[in-house]
Every structure is written in C-alpha cells, then in structure tokens.
C-alpha cells in the first residue's frame, strides 16, 4: 500500500529579497522567431518556461534559483510542462515591476498584459470568421471533442438543451437486460426539432442520486419512444430506488440548436472540426480573447525535492482531447474520484517539500491538483482555486488559507478537498470552500471497518457554505467514511447545504466512520440533519451548535444503523440544538433502524435543546418526549431552554451567546470563536 504523508510543520516565515538569490532567470514569451541568443537575462530573456528549466538543469545548485515570468499568458502548447529530479531548488514566480520595466518594448509586441503570469494549457484562437453573427473557426484535427471554451477570462456555456433547466425521461428500460444501462423511454415529442446523430458528439448528461453520467447517442426508436446510447452507464438508468433523488433528469450538451438560441455558448462539429461561438452583444472579433484548452495535465512534478510556485496562475486544462471512444462508460463519479492521474491540471508524485503560495489555479476540466504516491510536505497556501470541472485538491496536503469555489462544471461530484486512500497527518485549516455541487471536504475511502490508513487529520477553522446547490443528492459539507483514528474536526462553520432531494447533511459520517471527534463546529441551514451517522464506533460530538436544519423529517441529529455490533456509536455532549421548525412533535434525534438502546450504544448528556416556537421535541427510535427520553438514561443532565443567542431574531448572526446563556452557565458550553472568513447574512 502506498502512503500519502503530510507532516504538520512549524513554518518559519522568512522575507526573502530577490537580491538574496545568486541567480535569477527571466521568461518573456515572444512571437518573434528565436535567434538562439536567449540567455535568461533581462536583456535576452528566455521565451518559454521549458527553456528556463532546461538551462537550470545544466547548473549544479546548492541553493534556490529564481525563475521570474512576465505577467502575460505563457502557453505550454502541446506538451505537459514536466519537472523531475533534475529540477530541485527552484522558485517560479512573477517579475517585479522594476524587472518588467526593463524588458525591451520590442519583446512586448502583441502582449496580453495581465496582473500575474498565467501558465496556460490552451491555445489562443484568432482568425475567427463572422458568419451572420455566429463566429466559427477550424480547430486542430488532433482534438476529438471540445468540452470547454474561455472567453475574456470566463468559462462560457457549452451549448445545451434546455438552456437552464432539465428534461425528464418517462422511465428506464427493463432492468433484466443490459439495455437498462444504455437508454431510457423518453416523453412524447421530447426530441422534436432537435438534431440527433450517431456521428456527432452531442451528449446526454443523466442525473443519478449523487453523480451524473455522460452518454453518446446511438439509436432512437420513435414507435416506443426509446433512445439507446453507444456507451453504458455504470448503474441502471432510472433505478426506481433513487427516482426521487435523481428526478429522472437529463439535459443535452453540444447541441447546434442550443448554440443558435443562446448567446455566450459554443458548439463543436466533430466531422468538420469547426468550432462555433455565439458571441454576446458586447463582444467583438477585434478585442475578444478566446482560449481553447488542449492539455489534460498542464504541470507534472515527479521526483522533485524542494520547489516553490509563487504568484502564478495555472489555467485551461482540457478533457476528451485524445481519440474519442464512444463505447466506454463516462461516469462523473469515476472521472472525479477514482481514476489515477486523470483530468487534473497539476500532478505530483514521489516529491517532497513542494510549496504553492499565492497561486490561482482555475478554468480546469477536472481537479486542480492531485498529490499522488509517496509525496511528503506538500503545502498549498493563500491561493485561489476556482472555476473547476470537478473538484479542488485530491489526496494528502497541508492546505492553509485558501479559497476554493465554483466546482463541478463537467463532473458535479467533484469535491473541494478529497482525502482518499492512505492519507496521514493532513492539515486543512482556515480555508473558504463554497459553491460545490457535492461535498466540500471528504475524508476516507473505506466504507466499513477495514483498515483505511486514513488517520490523524486535522480539519479546522474552515468556512464551508453553499454546497449542493439543489443539483445532486446524498451529499454534505464534510463527508467521512471508514476508520479515521485520531482525526479531529474542529472550529469549522458550515451553512446552506441543500441538495436536490433530501440526504443533504452538514457533517455526514458514512459507513464505518469511527474514532472521529467533532468539536466547536457550527452547522446551520441544512436540508437534512446537521449531523448524521450511518454506522461506526467511538465518535464524539462535543461543544457544537446545530441550528436551523430544514423542516424535513431528518431532525437535527440522525443515526442510520445497518449493523448491530455491541459498541458505543457516539458520544453527544455539551452541544446546542437550535430548532426553528414550527412543527409539534419534531423528531430532534432520529433513529432509522434497529433499536440501539437495548444496550448503551450512545451517550447523550449536558445538551441544550430549544425550539423557537416552544413546540414539543421527540427523541430516539421510540419517538419519546424529552421526559421519557431522560428515563432511558439519556440526556439526564440536559435541558430544554433558550440558549440566548445574541440577535437571534435576525437569524443571520454567528450564534454568539449572551453571557447569561443557560448553555454556558449550567452546561459548561464554551462559546465558539468567530471565523475571520465568515460573512454575515442568511
């Protein structure tokens, strides 16, 4: 088994002046023919990052060397930028203002001036033809599909129908046959006036519970309204057990009619290799910058020791640029979570002491960064990671003070930070993670009690909000599974977590989650329970606030037990449950399966429960009122009382407590520190 390790270090902040480097190498892109006279100086800078890298490989180094990039686009073109064991002790950064001013004006001809250098995995498309208001251009024959396009620094829509909502199919096919994985029965007149061809790259995107799948059209049978795809799904389409979670929704992408109807969208004809773009009214051929991604991996770092990336952007990674195979499954779950070195902009393996600081990684097709096998001391700090095809970061890192947002554009199941397989000693702290369709942070990859080698993580002071966004189901702000010995989730704030249909929890302890502590965490505005647990043992919830979970039947705390081992499931003490549902008999602690109270499987005590309307609350499998619940030797020292949040009427505060709060005075609740990233508002 491979081990992904990230030691928690005390970092010394040292203000290095550029004068302390014995050598600086400069990179300024040039549209002029190379004359062979580049030596990396300000007078004769290199034209590409590869030139600077190759030059430094000829120098024996015992201290860091600095490579300074001019703040413009640095297009990598057709090959991943690869670093290996020859590329240690290097810092890649941006030029100072003084250095920029010393670059000869002739080198800046036709430059796109930026605030910082951007290493791009795309190509700048010029020479568009305007044909009656629709722009078109022939793209390289090596591209089998175009799934993304960026115009003036923003992602534009791949043409789709319907433009903003969904179609729904009538039902799936007979699940006793393989066709159940390859089609469905559509609704009457659903595909009228839509061109469907087996030779096109039009895709059907089908929504399941917690993922999506992509399919290519093969055949249609109007007589029984059946559509068949060339590539199967990994699961039955229209599975009746998840109809409510999926909504039997789908939409079409890369549709010519959709491009004609929608400004700011594109369509790719794979037969003619012509890319069409329907410009917005304020866009002109003379001033619009259009970039087409062509590299799946932009930056690869393998067997490198000591390297730093500072104040640089990495943008425009691609998907589906190689030969198109219309017969294999394209499941969002697989593409976003399972595959090795797949659809990732920055890839690391067998490397140590690699630091990314003040970076912008965006406009990706899949994950932004993957830290793979045998990596140590990988740090990502003070960076923005956004506009992502899937998620933010995979595997083991030290992630500190980053902003990760706007994910899941191609694969909605992408996770902000995903710690899977064997990860140890990962520190995730002071990050803001928001606008993902599935989950902000996921820990563990073993559904059950098997050894997971995922432990001793610290998830602290993170601000997580607006997760789910009503698109998928079975999701959470923080999602855990398996044995997580020594893992601590503390001082996080999570809010506004809403899925398409239920199963949208604040913190979700999935199958086998064990040996986990959650403390000093605030969860509010969730579609389902603030905390939920499937099964596990020795988990602790202490000194947390659970507030304003939805009016669904899930309550504020829920336990779904699928096994009956005689062990302690969890301890729930010194917490505040603040319920705002105007419903008598609200099930505050919900238990879904065999009675866990025949033996002491949970410990609950010293908690403060409160319903804003004074309605009766019930607890446990027996649906007991509070006094009956206490007779079962649970919550014997707990109270039902107003915790006295300051400005509670506004429903938009940070849950600061009045100094005379009964939770503080009687139950020893410790007020929770307000996060620096937190923003007021409902």
Task: Provide a brief overview of the structure.
This protein is mainly β and 682 residues long.
Helix content class: under 10%
From the alpha carbons, calculate the radius of gyration and give it in angstroms.
27 Å
Number of spatially distinct domains:
4
Q: Please give the count of helices.
A: 7
Distance between the termini: 45 Å
Helix/sheet category: mainly beta
| Beta-strand residue fraction | 35-45%
* pLDDT averaged over residues: 89
Total strand count, please? 63
Placed side by side, the strands forming the largest sheet appear as 2-3-6-26-30-33-36-40-44-47-50-53-56-59
Largest sheet: 14 strands, parallel
Which outline best applies?
globular
Taking pLDDT < 50 over at least 5 consecutive residues as the criterion, the unreliable ranges are 1-20, 596-600
Domain Right handed beta helix: 344-399
InterPro entries: Beta_helix, PbH1, Pectin_lyas_fold, Pectin_lyase_fold/virulence
Organism: Rotaria magnacalcarata
Protein name: Right handed beta helix domain-containing protein
């Amino acid at each position: 088994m491979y081990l992904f390790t990230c030691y928690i270090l005390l970092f010394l902040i040292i203000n290095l002046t550029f004068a302390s480097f014995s050598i600086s190498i400069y990179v300024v892109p040039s549209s002029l023919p190379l004359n062979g006279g580049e030596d990396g100086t300000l007078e004769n800078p290199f034209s590409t990052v590869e030139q600077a890298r190759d030059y430094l490989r000829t120098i024996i180094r015992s201290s860091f060397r600095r490579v300074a990039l001019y703040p413009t686009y640095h297009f990598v073109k057709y090959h991943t930028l690869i670093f290996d064991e020859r590329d240690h002790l290097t810092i890649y950064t941006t030029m100072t203002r003084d250095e920029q001013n010393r670059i000869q004006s002739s080198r800046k001809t036709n430059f796109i001036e930026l605030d910082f250098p951007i290493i791009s995995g795309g190509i700048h498309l010029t020479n568009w033809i305007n044909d009656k208001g629709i722009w078109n251009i022939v793209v390289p024959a090596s591209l089998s599909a175009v799934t993304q396009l960026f115009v003036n620094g923003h992602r534009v829509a791949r043409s789709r129908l319907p433009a903003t909502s969904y179609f729904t199919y009538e039902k799936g096919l007979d699940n006793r046959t393989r066709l159940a994985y390859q089609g469905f029965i559509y609704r009457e007149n659903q595909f009228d006036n839509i061109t469907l061809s087996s030779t096109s790259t039009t895709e059907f995107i089908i929504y399941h519970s917690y993922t999506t799948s992509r399919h290519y059209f093969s055949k249609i049978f109007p007589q029984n309204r059946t559509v068949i795809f060339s590539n199967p799904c990994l699961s039955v389409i229209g599975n009746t057990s998840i109809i409510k979670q999926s909504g039997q929704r789908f939409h079409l992408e890369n549709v010519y009619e959709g491009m004609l109807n929608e400004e700011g969208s594109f369509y790719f004809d794979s037969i003619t290799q012509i890319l069409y773009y329907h410009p917005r009214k304020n866009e002109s051929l003379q001033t619009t910058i259009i970039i087409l991604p062509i590299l799946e991996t932009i930056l690869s770092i393998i067997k490198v020791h000591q390297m730093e990336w500072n104040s640089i952007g990495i943008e425009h990674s691609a998907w589906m640029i190689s030969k198109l195979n219309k017969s294999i499954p394209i499941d969002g779950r697989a593409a976003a979570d399972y595959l090795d070195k797949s659809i990732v902009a920055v890839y690391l393996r067998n490397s140590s002491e690699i630091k990314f600081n003040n970076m912008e990684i965006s406009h990706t097709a899949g994950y932004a960064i993957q830290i793979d096998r045998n990596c140590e001391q990988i740090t990502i700090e003070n960076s923005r990671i956004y506009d992502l095809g899937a998620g933010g970061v995979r595997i083991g890192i030290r992630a500190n003070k980053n902003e990760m947002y706007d994910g899941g554009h191609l694969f909605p199941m992408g996770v902000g930070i995903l710690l899977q397989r064997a990860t140890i000693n990962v520190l995730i702290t002071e990050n803001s993670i928001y606008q993902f369709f599935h989950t902000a942070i996921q820990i563990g990859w073993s559904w059950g009690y098997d050894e997971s080698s995922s432990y001793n993580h610290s998830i602290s002071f993170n601000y997580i909000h607006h997760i789910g966004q009503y698109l998928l189901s079975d999701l959470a702000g923080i999602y855990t599974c398996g044995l997580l010995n020594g893992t601590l989730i503390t001082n996080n704030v999570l809010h506004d977590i809403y899925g398409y249909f239920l199963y949208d929890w604040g913190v979700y302890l999935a199958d086998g989650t064990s040996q986990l502590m959650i403390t000093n965490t605030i969860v509010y505005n969730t579609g389902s329970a603030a905390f939920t647990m499937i099964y596990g043992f020795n988990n602790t919830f202490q000194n947390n606030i659970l507030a304003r979970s939805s009016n669904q039947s899930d309550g504020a705390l829920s336990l779904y037990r699928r096994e009956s081992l005689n062990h302690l499931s969890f301890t729930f003490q010194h917490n505040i449950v603040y319920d705002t549902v105007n419903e008598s008999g609200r099930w505050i602690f919900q238990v879904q399966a065999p009675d866990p109270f025949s033996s002491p499987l949970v410990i609950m005590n010293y908690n403060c429960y409160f319903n804003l309307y004074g309605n009766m609350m019930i607890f446990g499998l027996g649906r007991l009122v509070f006094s009956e619940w206490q007779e079962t030797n649970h919550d014997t020292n707990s109270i039902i009382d107003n915790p006295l949040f300051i400005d509670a009427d506004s429903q938009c505060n940070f849950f600061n407590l009045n100094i005379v709060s009964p939770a503080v005075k009687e139950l020893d609740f410790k007020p929770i520190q307000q996060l620096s990233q937190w923003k007021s508002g409902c």
